[in-house]
Amino acid sequence: MVMTYSGAVKVGGPADVHELPDLMISKVAVGPMDNNAYLLRCRATDEQLLIDAANDADTLLTLIGADGIASVVTTHQHGDHWQALAEVVSATGARTYAGRDDAEGIPVATDVLVEDGDTIRVGRVELTARHLVGHTPGSIALVYDDPHGHPHVFTGDCLFPGGPGRTTRPKEFNSLMDGLETKVFDVLPDETWVYPGHGNDTTLGTERPHLAEWRARGW
């Protein structure tokens, strides 16, 4: 029986697996801030990539399994998103990726500095990086444009159900909103599935009607 993916996970609970034709996405919650980590597995090659080694290395390494990972992407420099990074990299030898403007704030060396529009591969699957300035200077989202269906976007802390990620100044808020609108909402369809850095998933269609409301409230 094929289980329906909901994206609802709890710390200490099992991963939820989103099975796509070319890619398997396993979502798990870890750590005291309920961070989401995502393990992507190319179905053609079995190569794996981890998005945010946020916390609880034992849980992440168990999820990764004996096949290991080729790479780990850190969506941004905030500490709750890289607490397990050193241990995961040490155990797997994975290549590290992060946005160029956030790499200095991550205390594990970044092998590949990511720019807007760069491609990150996991096996035969391609992810496109989108640089979104505001939550941090170098936050990146990763877009998987599924050739068999709708796109999928991993937003880190830049977009959640109900609004953009936290910013501290109006300039940063406006920058983040501008980036979300031009690089995400304006170019991806309503069916696009959103995988955030904390909490439940959403879709762009669910959030799109509220863009003006977010602008007006300023957060």
UniProtKB/TrEMBL annotation:
Keyword Ion transport part of the UniProt annotation: no
Gene Ontology molecular function terms on file: hydrolase activity
InterPro entries linked: MBL_Glyoxalase_II, Metallo-B-lactamas, RibonucZ/Hydroxyglut_hydro
Record carries keyword Iron-sulfur: no
Stretches assigned to the Metallo-beta-lactamase domain: 34-198
CDD domains: metallo-hydrolase-like_MBL-fold
Key words of the record: Hydrolase
This protein's name: Zn-dependent hydrolase
Superkingdom, natural source: Bacteria
Species annotation: Streptomyces graminofaciens
